[in-house]
Amino acid sequence: MKRTRRPADLDHRFDSDSVSRTLALIGDQWTLMILREELFGVRRYGQLARNLGIPRPTLSARLRSMVDSGLLERVLYARDPDRFEYRLTDAGRELFGAAALLMRWGDTYLAGPAGPPIVLRHHDCGEIAAPTLVCGRCGLEMTAHNVTPEPGPGFREPA
């Protein structure tokens, strides 16, 4: 089997690109599932454990990691004993678009014959949402066919 290799002059751009750094924070299944629950309003440890069926040590580790990385904040909601809930930070809420697009992809390619198990109703128009990635400058839809990656301000030239 012949293996293809990236051209040597492009290797360096994959060392610290934004997708790699983001996936290092949220790329495992449990973190994404916790993020989904948080985006749907679940805040408490017990609710997360029940909804996800996640082992408690795994849930504790993922929540700690998400707090440490700035996606969630741990907030006291009761005393005697102290009880905490986990709330999305601005950085965590910013991942809604990515989660909605993943959900749309799953609904398109993985939903059964009955259709998607969960839909999102858009409050502004009252309709079932069709999440779409649009350009923040012109408002037109973005696809892999109408964008071109270019060096950004953080781009590093190869050594």
Walk me through what this model shows.
With 159 residues, the chain is mainly alpha-helical. It has a domain at 8-93: Arc Repressor Mutant, subunit A (Orthogonal Bundle). 37% of the residues lie in helices and 8% in strands. The chain has six helices and two strands; from the N terminus they run ααααββαα. The chain has helices at 18-26, 29-39, 45-52, 56-68, 90-93, 96-109, and strands spanning 72-78, 83-88. It has a two-stranded antiparallel sheet.
Any chance you could write out the topology, listing elements then pairs?
Blueprint: H1 18-26, H2 29-39, H3 45-52, H4 56-68, E1 72-78, E2 83-88, H5 90-93, H6 96-109
Antiparallel strand pairs: 1-2
What is shown here, in short?
The chain is mainly alpha-helical and 159 residues long. It is 37% helix and 8% strand.
Question: Which key phrases capture this entry?
Answer:
159 residues, mainly alpha, Arc Repressor Mutant, subunit A, two-stranded antiparallel ribbon, 6 helices, 2 strands, globular, disordered N terminus
CATH T-level fold name of the domain at 8-93: Arc Repressor Mutant, subunit A
Which ranges are low-confidence, i.e. pLDDT below 50, for 5 or more consecutive residues?
A: 1-8
Look at the helices and sheets and give the structural class.
Answer: mainly alpha
Q: Please provide the ordered H/E string of secondary-structure elements.
A: HHHHEEHH
Going across the biggest sheet, name each strand in turn.
1-2
Instruction: Give the N-to-C terminal Cα separation.
Output: 32 Å
Shape: globular
Q: What is the alpha-carbon Rg in Å?
A: 19 Å
Compute the average pLDDT: 90
The CATH architecture classification of the domain at 8-93 is Orthogonal Bundle
CATH fourth-tier homologous superfamily of the domain at 8-93: Winged helix-like DNA-binding domain superfamily/Winged helix DNA-binding domain
Specify the CATH class of the domain at 8-93.
Mainly Alpha
